[in-house]
Amino acid sequence: MPAKTNRGPVAGPANRRALISAARTVFAESGYDAPLNAVARRAGVGQGSLYRHFPDRVSLAVAVFDENIGELEAFARSKRSSLGGLIELVIEQAIVSTALIELTMNSADDERVRVLGERVAALVDEVVAVERDRGRIGAEVDSADVLLAISMLAAIVSRTPEQDRRSVAERAWALFPASFAVTVHGAGMVE
């Protein structure tokens, strides 16, 4: 087998993207304690490249969540934005990112993780304001309530066996609509 050609700095952005993608997969398959060399192997890069981009586990988790939050921010600013849609997207992300949820929960005092939390709070503020303007959420409901619901959902999903995550998330979310004064449709999810 021929040795890999070192492409130098031009490979950096592609390596970073490959590492983030690999981290999603490796942590989803092997959990929080998955060896970081497995991430590098899956990405097809050397361990040195991994540590150049992500010097620790939290850095890697922050990069994955940064992308996840980018998706949530785009949704919150879209015309189809709704509380139920936001929660559905959070659930989809949580189902495949359970180990990363645990990792960031354990690192809540880390400034990098706090910044992510601030971004989530800001996008939830946007969605709550839109839902309130549309008359689909009670005036007594504030962003802190929605953030609490999201945290509870993420926590329960992260501790549920993979095959049961979707149904458990839907059951858990079904408990909130009456409190938020929104209409429930379908399998317990909010429109």
Automatic annotation (TrEMBL):
The record ties this protein, via Gene3D superfamilies, to: Tetracycline Repressor, domain 2 (1.10.357.10)
- InterPro entries per record: Homeodomain-like_sf, HTH-type_TetR-like_transc_reg, HTH_TetR
Q: Which residues form the HTH tetR-type domain?
A: 13-72
Transcription regulation listed as a keyword: yes
* Keyword Zinc-finger attributed: no
Signal peptide per UniProt:
none
Provide the alphabetized UniProt keywords: DNA-binding, Transcription, Transcription regulation
Q: Which residues bind DNA?
A: 35-54
Q: What is this protein called?
A: TetR/AcrR family transcriptional regulator
**Organism placement in taxonomy:** Bacteria, Bacillati, Actinomycetota, Actinomycetes, Micrococcales
